[in-house]
UniProtKB/TrEMBL annotation:
InterPro entries: GLUCM_C (IPR025504). Residues 10-311 form the D-glutamate cyclase-like C-terminal domain. GO terms for molecular function: D-glutamate cyclase activity. This is D-glutamate cyclase-like C-terminal domain-containing protein. One of its GO terms (biological process) is glutamate metabolic process. It comes from Myodes glareolus.
Length: 319
């Protein structure tokens, strides 16, 4: 586990935000979920179309692929403005074998607690949630002043729908847990570590997300956190002891088993295809702003591919 944490943190200096065992706790909660809602999208490049960055969607889709392999209902919620983009990303991911099954894509633009509860629950009844777990991976998070900021303190509120409200509403609905994955403190869910963000992250006093998730997974690049969650779920579901507890909690497994899980893990080949799909759709790297095979200014070849392989190697050796 500690090797896993070292791998996903990398060397970008965000270790100060780390809370012990959050990856494990998030994976345990996800393992017990039947229906998961994933969100992503950080429109940091507000002068370009699309304004999204290459960090976020790959990690979200990689996690969704593994959740599907576990037999869990998996959906994605994105900004209305970005619905067409994410629809194209998912369609092409299926065509190229990154996904085996399409992910239903939803939008949420409601503006009240009642709207959020109606979205999350059948007939708006908090006793009948539609989702057991919400996951945000590199999703723009609301700051204390109600705005949304990129790392350079630029306000991008005009590009962001209030998906944060779903995480706030979930805090008051029994049976819904949440996870936030971030690498800078301004992502949805990072409210759990906001004091550390304010103290240790550049511009943290302004950009820190104020909305908490139950679990805050910190990674050097948020995609890595999505990959790590998929890998952690593989390890848990390959464990006989966990399988017995899981059977007591939610009943017998409805999926094929370990072979399908292995195929559903992130891989260098699949993630290279996914990044290529983003590039085809003119999605830019978060730091440099270039349209190319990089994420957060780090090249896929020699950095991301090596990180993915380390995670997969650390995962499969636990079989």
């Amino acid at each position: 586990y500690f090797c896993f944490v070292f791998v996903i943190l990398g060397s970008r200096g965000i270790g100060y935000l780390l809370h012990r065992d959050e990856l494990l706790r998030a994976a345990l909660s996800l393992s017990h979920a039947r229906s998961v809602l994933v969100t992503t999208g950080f429109p940091t490049h507000f002068n370009h179309e699309p304004p999204e960055e290459t960090d976020g969607p790959p990690g979200a889709i990689a996690l969704a692929a593994f959740l599907q392999a576990l037999g869990k209902e998996t959906s994605m919620v994105v900004d209305q403005r970005a619905l067409s983009l994410h629809t194209k990303l998912v369609e092409e991911a299926v065509k190229q074998g990154v996904l085996t099954t399409p992910i239903p894509i939803l939008t949420y633009q409601g503006g009240s607690v009642e709207d959020a509860q109606a979205f999350l629950c059948k007939d708006g009844d908090p006793k009948s949630p539609r989702f057991d777990h919400l996951v945000a991976i590199e999703r723009a998070g609301r700051a204390a002043d109600g705005s949304y900021y990129n790392a350079r303190k630029m306000n991008i509120k005009h590009l962001v729908d209030p998906i944060d409200d779903l995480f706030l509403a979930a805090q008051k609905i029994p049976g819904i847990s949440s996870t936030g994955v971030g690498d800078g403190g301004n992502e949805l869910g990072m409210g759990k570590v906001k004091e550390a963000v304010k103290k240790f992250i550049r511009n943290g006093d302004v950009i820190a997300c104020d909305v908490e998730a139950d679990f805050a997974v910190i990674a050097g690049v948020s995609n890595w956190g999505g990959y790590a969650l998929a890998c952690a779920l593989y390890i848990l579901n390959s464990c006989d002891i966990h399988e017995r507890y899981l059977r007591r909690a939610i009943g017998p497994s409805r999926v094929a088993g370990e072979q399908s899980w292995t195929q559903a893990l992130p891989s260098v080949a699949k993630e290279e295809k996914m990044l290529g799909i983003l590039v085809q759709n003119q999605v830019r790297s978060g730091v440099s702003g270039i349209v190319g095979m990089e994420v957060d200014g780090l090249p896929f070849s020699g950095v991301h591919d090596e990180m993915i392989q380390k995670l997969v190697d650390a995962t499969t050796k636990h079989k």
